Amino acid sequence: MRADIDESASVAGVPSSSITLVVVSKGRSHDHVEAIASTGHTVFGENRQQGLAERIERGFPSRIEWHFVGPLQRRKVRWVEEHVTLLHSMDRLSLARSWVAAGDKPALVQFNLGNEPQKSGFDPESAGAVVETLLAIGVDVRGVMAIPPQAQDPEETRPYFAALRKIYERYRDEYDNMEHCSMGMSSDFQIAIEEGSTMVRVGRAIFEPTDR
């Protein structure tokens, strides 16, 4: 996996060390996750509060950094905020208010790049107002995140990644804390890196490499 990231980073003209790999462990056995952790990897992502709770109860080493990468219900905000390092899915103002009330953990702003009704996220056309409103509420905004429309050919995701990169670069220049552009998953992370991703969320390509 790191070899693939290295190759894409080279194409993008950036150091491989600037790309954070979030191993998405949702639905995987504790043994599988522990096997990845035993290699020295420390950043893992869960998309459900229950799944994250099971990891915490398992007692993984304290060096493990848990990210929350899925939709988050407001009633579960306080528990999740306590146990994660970063929220990838800040997708609505009501969640932002609950998140700030729970604590001060950082979050990424999720945008719905394809305006898909089945997906959550803010309208990218309103990015400026969204970021400013979240900052005013008190959210520690550390970057942006998006999941592009599903495509059979990963190349079709490239314009969406480029659009998110433009949002990221604009606010990275304005705000010192804007450090992450989280985009790219198992099927398209290489293209995402070429288009400026600084953080990829990969599960299947790691746990089921023969499927790639």
Number of strands: 8
Oligomer: single chain
- Into which percent range does the helicity of residues fall? 25-40%
Query: CATH superfamily membership, which one?
Result: Alanine racemase
What is the level 1 CATH name?
A: Alpha Beta
What's the rounded overall pLDDT mean? 95
Strand order in the largest sheet: 7-6-5-4-3-2-1-8
Number of domains: 1
Which structural class do you get from the secondary structure elements?
alpha/beta
Radius of gyration: 16 Å
Task: Note the main sheet.
Answer: 8 strands, parallel
How much of the sequence lies in strands comes to: 15-25%
Helical run tally: 9
What would the principal axes of the Cα set say about the shape?
Answer: globular
Unreliable sequence segments: none
The CATH architecture is Alpha-Beta Barrel
CATH topology: the name is TIM Barrel
Distance between the termini: 11 Å
